[in-house]
Amino acid sequence: MSRGGSGGHVRVLTARKRTAQSTRWLERQLNDPYVKRAKADGYRSRAAYKLIELDERFELIRGCKRVVDLGIAPGGWAQVIRRRIPKAAVVGIDLLPVDPIDGVTIFEMDFLDDAAPGKLIEALGGAPDLVLSDMAANTVGHPQTDALRTMALVETALHFACEVLEPGGTFVSKVFAGGADSELVAEMKRNFKTVKHAKPPASRKGSVEWFVVAQGFKGRSADQPR
Known about the structure:
By secondary structure, the protein is an alpha/beta fold. The chain has 2 domains: about 1-30, no CATH class; about 45-215, Vaccinia Virus protein VP39 (Rossmann fold, 3-Layer(aba) Sandwich), CATH 3.40.50.150. It has 7 helices and 9 strands; from the N terminus they run ββαααβαββαβαβαββ. A 7-stranded mixed beta sheet has the order 5-4-3-6-7-9-8, with helices on both faces. Strands 1-2 form a two-stranded antiparallel sheet. The protein is globular, with a radius of gyration of 19 Å. Mean pLDDT is about 85; it is low at about 1-5. This is Ribosomal RNA large subunit methyltransferase E. Keywords: Cytoplasm, Methyltransferase, rRNA processing, S-adenosyl-L-methionine, Transferase. InterPro entries: RNA_methyltr_RlmE, RNA_MeTrfase_FtsJ_dom, rRNA-MeTfrase_E, SAM-dependent_MTases_sf. Its EC number is 2.1.1.166. It is found in: Cytoplasm.
């Protein structure tokens, strides 16, 4: 149950079976302008605007022919890709089930599975221009542990990107507050012409998430092992 407050703010009344935490989450959702925009624009989640805002700043999407979406659920980023470059091949992967998206190949499996990278590239039909990662580890409530677990996923996604990207390609990944650690940034700078951190306006102010944007993949040198 909810009722309007002053200035159009919706206040949620705590139901008998609803915890205070879930009540706060529901109230935040009901009053979030990005949630309302997502519903109006037909996006599955407010996260779509994070990619839209990153694209407006860094020009990530235009001209891409093949895109990999790691951690695709619920599909907002893939929707943005399909709308902006309808002819591009798009593949995604997630542990969670994802409703079909027209023109997108979706794998419900663990990206850490040894078979996952090969399946993604086979379905894509060639090397991607853009690798996106919105993956985050399930939190355990311990900030340092949660950050380490997510950074391990970022590291794995970066390794994948450096294995498969076309020269000149782009890698975008979610990271925690403080950005990617120094060793990971150094690795990105060895492989990409530019590496920048950004927090798009659609990312909630109280959220610890940032994004790292690595552009201009230098390509794999002949002496680098596969």
